[in-house]
Every structure is written in C-alpha cells, then in structure tokens.
C-alpha cells in the first residue's frame, strides 16, 4: 500500500471515531474543533497528489463534512472559526468532485460555498467574502440545467447577493444584475407556487432601489405594479409575510408621491403602512414594528407638509414616538429616528407654540447627543451641540430662564471648539454663540 493509501486509511479511522464521538456527544466543542482542523490540514497537504474524482479521498471529505454540516454557525464561538472550517472542507469537496458527478455535483458544492462565504460576510463584514459568495453562487447557477427545480431559488439568492453588494459599494452594475436575477427567478417560478409573492416582492424592491438611485419614474411605477401583483395573490390567513408586503408597497407609494406629488399615492401609502401594522402577528419583533411605525409616521408627516392639517402632525408624532421607544440604544437607526422625532416636535412647536414640544425636542436632543462618540474629530457632534444650543435659545425666548441661556452658551461654545477654523459651519456657530451671549 502506498504512503497516501496508508494515510487515507488512518484518516478514515480517525474521522469515523470522531463522527461517533460527535454523535454521542462524547467530545467537547474545543476538542472537536481541534481534531477537525488537524484532519483538514492533512487532507489539504496531500491535495495536489490526489487526482479529481478519487472516490476514496472524496469519501473522506464527505464524511468529515457530515460532522460539520449539522452544527450551528456559532458552534466554535461567535467569530468565523466554524464557517472557516466549512469553507475549507467545501473547497476540498469541489476540487475532488468530478465535473460529471451528479450526487453531489460540483454545482452543489459551489452553491454551498456561496452560502458559507455569505455567512462569513455576515460575521466579518468583509466585502471580499461577499464577492466570493457572489462568484460561487454565479458559477453554481451557470452549471444548472434550465429545468432544474431549484434554479429559481438560486437566482433569488444570487440576486440578494448582488443587492447586498450594491448597498455596500453602490455600483450600478450590481443593481442591474439584481434585477436580472430576480426577473429570472420570477420567470422560472410557476404562478401557483407559494414562493411567487416573495419573488415578485423582491423584484419590486429592486426596481424601487434603482429608482432611488437614478430617479427614473418608470422604475417606481414598475415597482408598484409588481407589488400590487403581490397583494393580489391569495395566501393563507395569517401569512407572516403579508405585513412586509404592505410595508414595502407603502414605501413605494410614498417615494412616488415625493416625486410626482399625487395626493392619492400619499393616501395609499398611509393605508398600506396602517395595514402593515394591524396585520402584524402578536408578539412581532420590536425592531420590525419600530420600522413600520416609523414608515407610517413619515407618511403622516408628508401629508401634514402637503395640507397643514394638525391631526396629521399629531399622528406623525405619535407613531414616531412609539417607533423610538422600541429601539435599544445600540441600534444603528436610533439616531436617525430621534432626528426625525426632534424635527417633528420643533415643527409642531413652530405651528402651535406649545412649550411641551420644545421640552420634548430638548429631551430627544440630549438623548441623541449621548449616542454620539465623544470625539473631537466627530463632525456630527458639533452639529448636534449647535442644534441643542438653538433649542435652549428658543425656550429662553419663551420662558426667559437664565439657565436656558447659560446652557445655550455652554453647548454652542463646545460646538465652536469642535469646528475647524476653515469649516464654513464655524461662521454659523460663531453667529449663534454671539446671539446667545447678547441675549
């Protein structure tokens, strides 16, 4: 027996023992990780000596993969350790699997590599992982027979990858590829397939994203046309996707209103966002509900700006307040939502003059300020400090409290100190500070 044959036999016994220990939970995760890493290292060392299609070596790789595959993505901790091992194993499997093999095929391993790199991108945020995920998924789709049952699903996954990459890199080519993939997914899906509504919705979202990038009205019209088709499909009562469909088309109606100014679109946006909230299942995730409340608040604010009805402003404040209350302090959207809510209270104060709105604006300004990193290089901090000073000045004008003018001077002074001398905003800071000092 050759030296490689002997090593294969040793690895076969070792993997079988490991599989039994893992199945019976007689091995801890740290030891399992160490053992799998060592075996993979040995398999990789002899990779160049093994021809593609070597059935004995393939069995070793498949057997090792069968140990890894059922484990959760955090099996070896919160980092990328687990998915790194999966990727190494899948690369070996793809390298050894004959191109003509069907069970499993090279296409299968390319598809798995696409998923694994996407998982690692979700952990690492490294666009290199996203690029590899996209490339492997593209290769997997390119090798699929046109009539294969899962091609539509693969086009959907590939389209989602292109969409994510567009959001990261803002390359228009990725958006074009997104639309092409989603269109093929819809084309290959039978009309009565339960996946059809979500695939139509994906395509509608892609057209809406391209509209936001290029501003071409035909894109938002197409998005709404597709999303209206989604809502026309009969689905089971209580389908958990329905609230998202109403939310998405509500956003599209609002985008079209902002461009075309047609009041009917604004009414439709409010109607759809209201349904998205009312149809949400009991106990829905707070983050989803917060987003939908924010959308509805934005729609009422848009109608207030159009018709100046105070009832619309009140509803906008109500929904935005509920939206903010559902977000934790570390949520990336909280600062933006607080900014919207501050603007609402200030606008209502300007129209109605009730001091409670100025008090609320100050409360949310202080909370927003607490979320910013304390860094003298952080330009947003200077803006927030200056805005906070403006609020105190406005309240001083209402109440005449010396404490408010002192706070205004304190925050505006700090804003000026954080603003570079050659920054045009420094003139505004100086002007505001000068006005406060002379009050």
From TrEMBL:
SUPFAM superfamilies linked to this entry: HCP-like
InterPro entries: TPR-like_helical_dom_sf, TPR_rpt
Domain of life from the UniProt record: Eukaryota
Pfam families (alphabetical): TPR_8
Protein name: Uncharacterized protein
Organism for this UniProt entry: Rhizoctonia solani
């Amino acid at each position: 027996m050759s030296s490689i044959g002997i090593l294969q036999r040793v690895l076969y016994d070792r993997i079988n023992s490991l599989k039994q220990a893992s199945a019976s939970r007689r091995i801890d995760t740290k030891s399992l990780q160490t053992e799998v890493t060592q075996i993979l290292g040995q398999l990789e060392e002899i990779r160049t000596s093994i021809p593609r299609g070597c059935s004995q070596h393939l069995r070793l790789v498949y057997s090792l993969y069968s140990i890894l595959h059922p484990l959760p993505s955090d099996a070896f901790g919160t980092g990328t350790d687990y998915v790194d091992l999966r990727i190494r194993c899948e690369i070996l499997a793809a390298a050894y699997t004959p191109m003509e093999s069907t069970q499993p095929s090279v296409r299968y391993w390319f598809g798995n590599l696409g998923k694994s790199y996407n998982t690692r991108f979700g952990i690492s945020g490294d666009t290199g992982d996203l690029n590899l995920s996209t490339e492997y998924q593209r290769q997997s789709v390119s090798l699929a027979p046109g009539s294969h049952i899962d091609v539509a699903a693969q086009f959907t996954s590939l389209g989602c990858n292109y969409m994510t990459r567009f959001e990261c890199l803002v390359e228009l080519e990725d958006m074009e590829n997104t639309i092409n993939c989603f269109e093929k997914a819809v084309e290959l899906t039978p009309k009565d397939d339960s996946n059809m509504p979500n695939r139509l919705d994906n395509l509608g979202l892609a057209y809406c994203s391209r509209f936001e990038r290029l501003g071409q009205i035909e894109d938002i019209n197409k998005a709404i046309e597709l999303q209206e088709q989604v809502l026309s499909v009969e689905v089971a009562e209580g389908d958990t996707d329905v609230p998202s469909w109403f939310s998405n088309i509500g956003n599209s109606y609002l985008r079209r209103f902002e461009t075309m100014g047609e009041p009917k679109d604004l009414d439709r946006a409010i109607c759809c966002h209201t349904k998205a909230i009312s149809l949400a299942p009991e106990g829905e995730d707070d983050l989803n509900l917060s987003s939908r409340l924010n959308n509805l608040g934005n729609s009422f604010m848009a109608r207030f700006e159009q018709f100046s009805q105070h009832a619309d402003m009140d509803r906008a404040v109500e929904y935005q307040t509920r939206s903010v209350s559902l977000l934790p302090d570390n949520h990336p959207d909280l600062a933006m939502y607080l900014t919207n809510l501050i603007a609402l209270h200030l606008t209502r104060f300007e129209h109605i003059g009730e001091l409670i709105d100025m008090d609320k604006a100050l409360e949310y300004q202080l909370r927003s300020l607490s979320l910013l990193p304390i860094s003298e290089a952080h330009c947003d901090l200077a803006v927030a400090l200056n805005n906070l000073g403006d609020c105190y000045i406005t309240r001083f004008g209402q109440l005449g409290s010396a404490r408010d003018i002192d706070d205004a001077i304190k925050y505006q002074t700090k804003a000026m100190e954080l603003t570079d001398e050659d920054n045009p905003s420094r003139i505004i800071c100086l002007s505001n500070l000068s006005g406060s000092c002379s009050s």
